[in-house]
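Protein Record: Sequence and Backbone Structure Tokens
======================================================

Structure line: whole-number tokens from a learned vocabulary of local backbone shapes, matched to residues.

Purpose: to set a sequence beside its fold so the mapping can be learned.

___
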Amino acid sequence: QTRKKCPDILIVPPDFATYVSMSEQLMNFLKQTAPVVEQYSIDEAFCDMTGTGLLYGDPVAFAHQLKDDILNRFGFTVNIGISTNKLLAKMASDFKKPDRVHSLFSHEIADKMWPLPVEDLFMVGRATARRLHRININTIGDLAQADPGLLQRLFKSHGILIRQYANGIDPTPVVPN
């Protein structure tokens, strides 16, 4: 389809070995920076920065410095999400790309997360989103306020989980791996 629209396009195959190498280098760098690092995927990690305030100062300012350090050291951009748990940090990192730092603290959930479409919530796939839309749950805020009994009847334990996520609740710790 791309070649039909752009017949002169040059398509370069990915260099997966370089991607893996850069991922390993980034993870090692993060492990030198953060007390606890959990690699989530080849290009995502959670860093638990608890107790580093005296060392690094303001978390948002430090995240900007870290983002710039990564660009200067490795030559690629990253998004950094800052919060008190993994879910909110992940949501924040996805707000606007590229090369950004976003926060999503509990007092920001209603303004920053609840207006988003329900399908933007982590763990809400296309099929779940369609079923939620059918019962007029269209935003993350709608889901946060939805009747937990109804969600449990329709989605079993997953309904309770996604309602908790819509309210910013995620008790899972950052676990080094």
In short: The chain has a mean pLDDT of 97.
